[in-house]
Design brief:
107 residues
Length: 107
């Protein structure tokens, strides 16, 4: 039998997705963006600049999109889910670019 009780352990009930203003997402994303930029600069110094530049541009663009989302979107739940999605996209693209750099560099 299905119940409609609140389960605080479910992902969709986490405070970062329900009651936050989005500042936490921006702080974590900014720290991540700085670390990714340093990583891409170090990777660029060992090889070509094309792929690391793509990673840095994508990282900066997604961080700016997160800042715009924080300022423009008024509905809390939509804002927080959008920030989480943009952060996940930032990490996914960074992983893809890093793997591409390693594969191109080893070939």
């Amino acid at each position: 039998m299905a119940t409609n009780r609140f389960d605080g352990t479910r992902m969709r009930h986490q405070p970062a997705l329900t009651s936050s203003q989005g500042t936490t997402w921006l702080v974590i994303a900014t720290i991540t963006a700085v670390l990714l930029t340093v990583m891409f600069l170090l990777l660029a110094s060992t090889g070509g600049w094309a792929l690391p530049a793509v990673g840095m541009i994508a990282t900066a663009t997604l961080l700016l999109a997160m800042l715009a989302t924080r300022m423009v979107v008024s509905r809390r739940r939509v804002r927080l889910l959008t920030l989480a999605g943009l952060y996940a996209t930032m990490l996914t693209i960074a992983l893809g670019v890093t793997i591409s750099i390693v594969v191109v560099g080893s070939g």
